[in-house]
Amino acid sequence: xxxxxxxxxxxxxxxxxxxxxxxxxxxxxxxxxxxxxxxxxxxxxxxxxxxxxxxxxxxxxxxxxxxxxxxxxxxxxxxxxxxxxxxxxxxxxxxxxxxxxxxxxxxxxxxxxxxxxxxxxxxxxxxxxxxxxxxxxxxxxxxxxxxxxxxxxxxxxxxxxxxxxxxxxxxxxxxxxxxxxxxxxxxxxxxxxxxxxxxxxxxxxxxxxxxxxxxxxxxxxxxxxxxxxxxxxxxxxxxxxxxxxxxxxxxxxxxxxxxxxxxxxxxxxxxxxxxxxxxxxxxxxxxxxxxxxxxxxxxxxxxxxxxxxxxxxxxxxxxxxxxxxxxxxxxxxxxxxxxxxxxxxxxxxxxxxxxxxxxxxxxxxxxxxxxxxxxxxxxxxxxxxxxxxxxxxxxxxxxxxxxxxxxxxxxxxxxxxxxxxxxxxxxxxxxxxxxxxxxxxxxxxxxxxxxxxxxxxxxxxxxxxxxxxxxxxxxxxxxxxxxxxxxxxxxxxxxxxxxxxxxxxxxxxxxxx
Length: 513
Known about the structure:
Number of strands: 23
Number of helices: 18
Radius of gyration: 26 Å
Structural class: alpha+beta
Largest sheet: 7 strands, mixed
């Protein structure tokens, strides 16, 4: 099945089972805005809990805050967002559709990658067991030809981005004969910059109202609270401040479901270090964050680092953690060495001294910052994309199963009475009333056991138990594991210990020790 079709099925699955809904759907929706349903919010909260606890429980020198969405407008002038938070946009004159010029070129690079992979696949099919992929990539004429074109485009693209050369970006699009996906034509406008921040007004009257912005990132709320946290927490460098919160960007090219939205949620941690040590910490946090992702068990081959071609004005190093989505490797987290830019800017614009007195050096300095920033929504999407599977079973049957990590699953345990009589529902409720204090449980009595299993396979429930007539005599239930579908009899009093350790966030955190 084509990856595009797989992605469409995942989007449909999210709606059908209550994970994600189009926002304001009864009014025909609102572009690039989505609501999380009853199961989606549970999965999302579990992802956030995994991140939060990995930061604040496993690191004694990291604490959390929750800053306001509305902030003083000068903050965004100091941070550079008012003047420099722009995307290069281009319109197709025939379709009247607007695109990000850099994304169009990145998609073209991806097409070269796909062509290379197709040639490699042909070689693998032709030579079979004798196939040497490394040698094939290094010697095959067609592969080398495509790779040379990709390298030339990549170098030209990187130079244009670093120089902010909008004319060259447009010329690349023309030279590569990139067409509009809607009209199929190359009738492009000039490339121009577009500021992504949402504006609003604050004040009791329209005449006295002042312009403020919805925050486009959560990081600045941490920076302007640096002194508050450092002094009240008596924090010593190195230390970090973590935050989870909503951010807003007026994305013109919002696409790929919840991958790029106008209202989204971030999990960010700013780590304050001594100047001169930032690149060492940058490398260390890259390893730490990759380990966090890979602890979910999605396979190391589905992750990679992508070092930035163009560094932001405040950074001296930047790398993305990319995950293999159905539409290619895409960024889910960024790790950046932000130097001392942010604190220095806020000190300048506020007139307040923002420094750290180092008792070991007996001097004051403005700390440097390592940032880890992960999109909750993108993380949610990566989890769903990896977990979704259409599995063929013995006998010609099939099932849709979400192989979610047990600790992230919205429902940990489903409890079924075999029939709706003979005291079995009462016993099932008794078990649920005991276990619901420890993890999320669901009770189901409608339809056959087989159909109930299929429903919970489709939402990722890792364990199901069935209460039958023997339960009333021997105090045992049948427990069924989602991935293997293996069933066994266990005592009711053993259920909590058997399940809790496997479904708790702690089970993931222990992998990070």
